[in-house]
Amino acid sequence: MFVTHTRGRVKRAAGPRADRKPREEWNEWMEMNMRNRSLSPGRRALALAALAAALCAGGLNAETHWNLQAVNANGASAWSPAYPFTVVGVLLTDPDEMLDSTPNFQPASAGVMGGEWQMVVQAVWPGDRGGTVCWMGQNYALRRSPGDDSFSYSNEAWLAEMARLNHDPATGHAFRKGDLVSITANGSLFFGGKRNINEMHRNEPEYDFTLSLVASNYGLPAPEVLSLASLVRTNDNNPATFEDIFDPTRATGGEHWQGMRVRLNGLTLLETNGWNPANPWGGRLCAVTDGENRFFKLRHPRYSLGPPPAGVFDAIGILNQESGSGAQGTNGYELFVQQVLPAEPAVLTLASTPVITWPGSLANYQLVYTNILGAPGPWQPATKVPALVNGRWTVMLDPAEAQTRFYRLQRVQ
What we know:
The chain has 7 helices and 20 strands. The chain is elongated. It has helices at 9-18, 21-34, 41-57, 65-68, 155-165, 253-257, 399-402; strands at residues 85-91, 116-123, 131-137, 180-185, 188-191, 194-197, 210-215, 224-226, 261-269, 285-289, 295-299, 313-321, 333-342, 349-350, 355-359, 365-370, 380-381, 387-389, 392-396, 406-411. It folds into 3 domains: 9-215, CATH 2.40.50.140; 224-342, CATH 2.40.50.140; 349-411, no CATH class. The strands form 5 sheets. A 5-stranded antiparallel sheet has the order 3-2-1-4-7, with helices on both faces. Strands 9-10-11-13-12 form a 5-stranded mixed barrel. It is an alpha+beta fold and 413 residues long.
């Protein structure tokens, strides 16, 4: 049998929020001001600092994504659980683009999770970094001993949960990517290389996590630009090893960008079977290469990205990790793709002024020079700081220096 949970939603929405008046007042201020996307970075930093103070005043345990996603030398979670906690960030996904939340109750003996819901939120606090995945499944009896089907959500109860998670409890606003939200969690689990906010496979109300709107249309963070050289080593042709660059300090490698919007440039598809939005989660993977003996995985969303790119392309999305283990997280990095763009070659254009420009999408390149081609020693970084002009990085050269130097682009990450 299974249990239909009404779970007192009206009472839960009205009760605890009455004790959070400072945050409600702050939400109104943020909603009024964040609608204007011209807010300066300094003002946004002050606004977020004030939000942190409001969360604390409301009795909430504010946590950072950086702390929550801390890992040890094996890539397993190093965070010390303390509930409830609240994180703040920008939604990077819409509710339906990662997993299929269509209700599908099945007994545990069927071996299927049924409906699944997942969203990703990226840090915005000054000094914070990274992002966190929020996940929920319907048929928890599959993962919870002794497999009693009352541990799962009926289809009716699941639909009620989806309505709760996909809408702000105070305004009814339907959440979408680019919204600034706060998430209060009463549980979390480590799996696949990251700590997920979830219900710990329990359908009791005390394990709920809740999303609250801070500001709609806050805006997606600009993707950090990098290449596969920052994420994987060249292939050693040993199937028993992984080429993922893992750094538990998170200064380099996949951990540095996990849960964040990034732009990977210079990719070529090696297979197209997974380039299909109708496939299930596990069937939407494609292998890519940078043409320099490095290989990586892209995961297609549940909406169309158009036909598979035939040539070299760039991909914008969320750096995710799926190590497949609850004990280690040193491998399995991938890009959840949200946008595909034509690749722009790392070619310099020299004007007569003299001015050097290169594509604005290549933020992970720097201009370097040498006075003698073929001379030993590294090329030197150009002293002029590039500016982004009309979508291209632009450097104004000193005419005297330009006559004696050779310039090229050098990838830095």
